[in-house]
Write a structure and sequence with these properties.
Blueprint: H1 3-10, H2 17-27, E1 32-33, H3 34-44, H4 50-62, E2 67-69, E3 77-79, E4 87-91, E5 97-100, E6 126-129, H5 132-141
Parallel strand pairs: 4-6
Antiparallel strand pairs: 1-3, 2-3, 4-5
Bound molecules: zinc ion (3 copies).
Residues 31, 79, 81, 86, 88, 99 line the site of one zinc ion.
Length: 142
């Protein structure tokens, strides 16, 4: 049994070929759009609809096996790095996303002065800036 199968079973999810294929795609790392995930899943399985991929990603996210992030102005992206409360740095120039380890480590890493009675379990921190290649392009354009 593969570790992906064990992962699905450990979360009470049925093992299906589309779920295994999506986990396999996400395991390579990065923050992928649904379109890209679907393209790569189709290299592994004959026919999978985009809706089926959305359904799989929904099930994996609810089970805590994938994480969905959606920086402002960008389509939703999915990653397999879960459970470590890491954050993201997003390039304003090209949209590139990289992981940033949380300085605190546990969620929520920021405590609001007042949470209006909410029990806060997450602080979504996104750093924005220019990636190295966009910085180089900016310098070259000057
Ligand atoms: Zn960039
Ligand atoms: Zn990430
Ligand atoms: Zn943090």
């Amino acid at each position: 049994m593969s570790s992906a199968e064990e992962l699905l079973r450990s979360r009470g999810l049925r093992v299906t070929r589309p779920r295994l294929a999506v986990l396999d795609v996400l395991a390579a790392g990065g923050h992928l759009e649904v379109e890209e995930i679907t393209r790569q899943v189709r290299e592994r399985l004959d026919s999978v609809s985009t809706q089926a991929v959305y359904d799989v990603l929904g099930a994996l996210s609810r089970a805590g096996l994938s994480r969905r992030i959606e920086p402002a102005g960008s389509p939703a992206r999915y990653e397999a790095r879960v459970g470590d409360n890491h954050h993201h740095v997003v390039c304003r120039g090209c949209g590139m996303i990289a992981d940033v380890d949380c300085a605190v480590g546990e969620a929520p890493c920021l405590e609001p002065h007042s949470a209006h009675g909410f029990e806060v379990d997450e602080a979504e921190v996104t750093f924005w800036g220019l990636c190295p290649s966009c910085q180089a392009r900016r310098t070259a354009d000057d």
